[in-house]
Amino acid sequence: MKKSAAARASRPVTPPVPAGWTFLTNHAHVLWCLYREPELRLRDVAAQVGITERMVQKIVAELAEAKYLSVQKQGRRNVYRLTADRPLRHPLEAHCSVGELLELLNCTQPQRSR
To answer: Measuring CA to CA, how many Å separate 53 from each of 2, 43, 46, 99, 103?
Structure first.
């Protein structure tokens, strides 16, 4: 079944994921998306991150199991609540919380290098 033009137009348009590596993991990208929009569909998270919906489901399950987020049902939608005070997992950054990382990413204007 083909999707209508209106259905295709409602999908978020995201730039292609650059080839090679990035500074943040897919787990961080998924957390960032759900932090910005707690009611975002996993299909839309997948489109923004540039991974499959199945991979997003796996990441959300891992984050929920580790208590970094919880999933609450509201009608037919899920709402994702982050646990901001949980420490980051790697020993090098364990002194920081998830909330601190997300606030760092929540900058409004990127700093220009001089």
So the answer is: 19, 5, 5, 24, 26
pLDDT at 16: 61
Q: Which stretches of the chain score pLDDT less than 70?
A: 1-18, 108-114
Q: State the pTM of this model.
A: 0.77
**pLDDT value of position 106:** 86
Q: Any idea where the domains of the chain sit in the sequence?
A: 24-105
Closest CA to 43 of 56, 62, 24, 32: 56
Q: How many CA atoms lie within 13 A of 62 on its CB side?
A: 12
Q: Classify 24-105 by CATH class.
A: mainly alpha
For residues 27 and 11, give the distance between their C-alpha atoms in angstroms, rounded to a whole number: 22
